[in-house]
Amino acid sequence: MKRLRHGSRSVAGPGGQHVNTSDSRVELSWDVAGSAALSDDQRQQLVTRLGPRLIAGVITVTASEQRSQLRNREIALAKLSRLVAEGLAPEPAARRASKPTRSSKRRHRVAKEHRAATKQQRKRPSAD
Predict the structure, then answer these.
(1) 77-107 as b/e, with b when 16 or more CB fall inside 10 Å?
(2) Which residues pair with 59 in a beta bridge?
(3) CA-CA distance, 58 to 28, in Å (whole number)?
(4) Theoretical Cys-Cys bridge with 63: which of 25, 75, 124, 125, CB 3.0 to 4.6 Å?
(5) Distance between CA atoms of residues 39 and 82, nearest Å
(6) Bridge partner list, 10
(7) Quick check: pTM over 0.85?
(8) Splitting the chain (128 residues) into consecutive groups of 10 residues, what average pLDDT does each group show?
């Protein structure tokens, strides 16, 4: 490791203690469009939902969080499985809008009347 002399003490160079360790980054690619593990409907659903992440029908996941390449492989597999599970999950039920209740309408009207009265009191009195 490169050390810089600064006065009477030595200062570690840029990169820190683990700068010279071997690269343990893992890149995992899976061909969604050509996979035999998926049905046609599942494949279409994944291509639709993961469209922006796909390049020529292939999804790529990288992991470089850990110093161990084996651990990064496990992390990349977990990321890929989470992406596929989210892509194949059923759509949530559509929200049905409800009407406001009678009491909420009344509270809204009372609040509007109160605000209007407050603003009326701010007016300058007429010269009459």
Answers:
(1) eeebeebbeebeeeeeeeeeeeeeeeeeeee
(2) 30, 54
(3) 10
(4) 75
(5) 18
(6) 5
(7) no
(8) 50 57 79 84 86 84 85 92 89 91 97 96 84
